[in-house]
Design goal:
Two copies of one chain form a homodimer.
Chain A: H1 9-16, E1 24-30, E2 37-43, E3 47-52, H2 62-74, E4 92-94, E5 97-103, H3 115-132, H4 145-162, H5 166-180, E6 187-190, E7 199-202, E8 205-209, E9 216-219, H6 220-231, H7 241-254, H8 259-286, H9 299-309
Antiparallel strand pairs in A: 1-2, 2-3, 3-5, 4-5, 6-9, 7-8
Chain lengths: 320, 320
């Protein structure tokens, strides 16, 4: 939850005047998203999200992200659509920050994940992968396997203060992942951060996918592995194979898996667990006193990693 | 800015089912108000504010506050209207906290105060005072003159670390205020916290007054003195007599002043400056590390106090 940049009424009205959106009726800073400042804006024409991009998002990446959601939305993915000003630009500046307006998506993210949610997610993720295939721009995944060792090195000395033995566990796991990481799986646009708080539902129906600010070009199966970790574990960190089976089988009705993808899934799931374990561990050890955002507990991801380390074959995820 | 209590989708849907408000479409925690948790809720029927009352608001005061805004709204004051559930109750519980839903008010609060804002504010405040006259319940002002010495004593030892000499200044000022505080001015319902961020405008038109959680029974002229301090000083803390004159003269077109009120205004302005200086000083010295809310600088109110201490007669506020 965070509003890092406060936008005044006069600045806002001048900004909105660049669009054909009528008059501003209200504007509320919303306590969602930890990377950027977001406002829910109501005009005489409708509801929109105004985002001011803060320091954690690289400004040079913004055209990729905005172009991507525009591309995906036009292909039928229920994601925010960037609005263009009268000058044609979707990306502009407000209060000294890069800023953009996107359409508002109805719905709420599910706190208690049910199998139906996993089913709808599997279908939507496959549709996203297929729709992204015709997006020309690319962006390497800045948080893939090559990024993990530097993160680990910045945490290694203090990792055992979070959990005894964590440093050794991570060192051994990184050796394994770096030696075995696949090189040639089917790849394309990945969301790469598809946690439940980025997926909205109205009832059981998926109504929107948001927050594409980690989107990148990577293995489709790695994006699925991220979802396995984010959606298919219970609160006590036990793995729910029913949710995984439903998610994966629904996915493959839209985009079938190759054999190589199926075989790679256990390793990708370990990698995905390490990715979030490391970034959370880094934030946990490095967050400033008095920060507006509380870091997430890294140890949930240690439990998930421990599970995947015991997996002997893709059957463990409900794949046949 | 703060969302202290996170409300999940299932809890919310069960809560809203107690009302006749249709289906929930979206719900966003909003970064406004420092005392409570507020959500902007959209249903198929309209937009509402859902408030969960946190520890700083006394639960036993809530019926007074909710009854008051219901009373004021029915008398034509543009303030939020509490919604009643099917059982007739406006006050209920959600996620272990007292909670209520109120109507949403359009508009934005003005960051740069213009004389027109002060004029509209003066009229609205007088209307609020008149409308409140028929509200039967009362609530003593817990932050009036008798509350200031205990606050001072909790800060005195460290006050000079914020500004050299502050402790002496406050000690002398409190002696003066306690000896001279009026006893029998016209009194009734006061908002008692009518800062610009609690007053919405659409263009130059005042569209709403919010945040009645300091409302109490006190001198009307003290409420005006709070507004003098909150609305009629420039950012460099210079007093703008034009704004004061406009605010006060517009106020008296709706509710005329007594002579006693006019004569008391300089003292009440000093008292109001001390009230906010002390509460801000207290928060400044006592806020916990890592708090979600940054305390406001108390020294703006020292500058305002210094101005009022030089005032020899009510003429200084543009009163004739």
């Amino acid at each position: 939850m965070a509003v890092y940049t406060e936008v005044g009424d006069e600045d806002l009205i001048a900004f909105i005047a660049e669009y054909d959106l009528g008059e501003v009726i209200s504007c509320k800073g919303i306590a969602e998203g930890v990377e950027n400042t977001n406002y829910l804006l109501q005009t005489t024409m409708g509801r929109y999200i105004l985002t001011l991009y803060e320091k954690r998002v690289k400004e040079s990446d913004l055209p990729y992200f905005l172009g991507l959601i525009e591309h995906l939305a036009s292909a039928g993915v229920t994601c925010p659509v960037p609005l263009h000003g009268r000058d044609g630009n979707a990306l502009r500046r407000l209060c000294g920050r890069p800023a953009a307006m996107v359409s508002f998506l109805d719905g709420m993210w599910p706190r208690r994940i049910k199998p139906d949610h996993c089913s709808a997610l599997g279908e939507a993720l496959a549709q996203l992968h297929v729709a992204g295939d015709t997006y020309a721009a690319t962006r390497p995944n800045a948080l893939s396997v090559h990024a993990w060792r530097p993160l680990f090195e910045a945490c290694a000395a203090r990792a055992d203060s979070v959990s005894p033995g964590l440093s050794d566990t991570l060192a051994r796991e990184l050796d394994h992942l770096e030696s075995n990481w696949p090189k040639d799986l089917p790849s394309g646009v990945c969301h790469a951060d598809l946690f439940p708080d980025n997926v909205f539902f109205i009832g059981d129906k998926l109504s929107g996918i948001i927050d594409f600010y980690f989107a990148c070009t990577d293995f489709f199966a790695y994006d699925l592995a991220i979802c396995l970790n984010a959606w298919c574990f219970e609160r006590d960190n036990s793995f729910n194979i029913t949710k995984a089976r439903i998610m994966l089988s629904r996915y493959r009705t839209v985009r079938p898996f190759s054999d190589a993808e199926v075989q790679a899934l256990p390793l990708l799931a370990r990698g995905s667990a390490v990715r979030f374990l490391l970034t959370r561990l880094y934030d946990w050890l490095h967050h400033p006193e008095g920060a507006l955002v509380k870091p997430k507990d890294p140890l949930d991801y240690l439990a998930k990693l421990n599970f995947h380390q015991t997996v002997k074959s893709p059957d463990a995820y409900g794949l046949e």
